[in-house]
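Appendix B, Record 12. Input sequence as logged:
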Amino acid sequence: MSTLRHPPRRRRPGPSGRRRVARRPAAASPAALPFEAAPHDATPIEFAALPLDDRLRAGIADRGFVRTTPVQSAVFPLVFSGADLIACAETGTGKTAAFLLPIMQRLLERPAAGATRVLILEPTRELAVQIEDDFTGFSYYTDLTGAAVYGGVDGDSQAHALRAGADVIVATPGRLLDHMNCGVADFTRVEVLVLDEADRMLDMGFWPDVRRIVSALPGARQTLLFSATTSSDVVALAEQVMRDPRFIQIGRAGGPARTITHIAHVVPAREKVEWLTRFLRRSIGPSLVFVRTKRGADTLASALAGRGIRCAALHADRTQRDRSAAVEGFRAGRHSALVATDIAARGLDIDGVAHVVNYDVPDTAETYVHRVGRTGRAEAAGTAITLVAPDELPALQAIERSIDIYIDRPA
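Logged structural output:
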């Protein structure tokens, strides 16, 4: 296989201090969207029934995929057709394969060497690495080439991949703009732009960078926007970069997966550490614990470790080696708990997370949806637990009303 390789991945530490998440408008309902709702069939089917190249089928089989998920079934025909598309589906429903596989099929049907033809923008390093890994797996038996472009790693190999015209570039906006400003990237032959996790790119303040990147792309392209939630802000920004897009909503608009059980425990702030320790000692399965700040992640992880809990902290100020060790230790079962900030955990794709624990009540309903979406993935059951200090109850009740879920409060 011809694949552009790059050195071991390192990720750039983020800015220090607490990141305040602005309050966002509620998710827009399909009826309120200014786009045509596309007719679609979300019935899962065998991958063998899709019109895919045999080399792609082999890569799919190697990864153990047998049947499509609803979002994949719904989206494949429109991506094949070349239409602009906004697809909104819950976290963990298979959105990555929904756009990668039909795009790769089109590349194989119309081969063209020496030019980047697909640009995928991601909000975080972790997501860029994850998508590039998926591409590498699916493309194993083909000659398609790809590379990930993100901060925190030497840029020389990335510049080489950009100059060579890798078929697919997966990038975070900031690092990609750095290369573009140096005249390295040539995107004049880009056929498809994918804005993945668009809601989080907006939350994290990347949209001005995205607009600058889009301005350098051909106007005659397909643009695909994938998101777990679709707020009125996302819709307004989509109108700026898309041409007559179709819209597909899979599952509830702006809500978490129905396979997740939501529980809240009212616990005074000073008692949260002891409550969490007891829970982690008796719980079965890995737990992902969310806190608001990087300092809070370190403090809580240290407190839990001092009480005999196998855990690690994950946030942007940790070294790349420590971050990788924390994630791999959690994935391999060496850590029963991972204490993370929202942004650091955004790109995590770990199967089998049994529990998500909100140690702090999230700032917004969207943050709640993204946090709890780390469990209950691919129609598996999961549990979301929120520890609520008495003064946090109004914030939790507002989240409950906003996304129309029932959060059980055991006596």
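Confidence is low (pLDDT under 50) at residues 1-27.
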